Amino acid sequence: MSFNLDHYKQTAKAVEVDDIDFDDFRDKPLSTEAIRCLHYMSDVETHTVCYLRDLLVTPRTRTPGSPPS
User: Fold this and answer.
1) Domain boundaries, the chain
2) Nearest-5° Cα angle at 17, 44 to 47
3) How far is CA 27 from CA 22, 24, 30, 63, in A?
4) Among residues 36, 16, 20, 38, which one has the least CA distance to residue 28?
5) Quick check: 63 pLDDT over 70?
6) Quick check: pTM over 0.90?
7) Distance CA 28, CA 42 (A)
């Protein structure tokens, strides 16, 4: 699968939340399960960057022609 970095850099933008009425959560709070799921997804997103960083600093990424592990 290929990834077009130039296209990504031109089209990437922050998530827009202007249309979310956060005050509604006082009257209709999220369930415990939904909050737990959001915490999990946030952790996964945060750690994805950490894993990539750790991978990119390994010697294997700097060795041309090295076989995958």
Assistant:
1) 29-58
2) 10
3) 10, 5, 10, 57
4) 20
5) no
6) no
7) 22
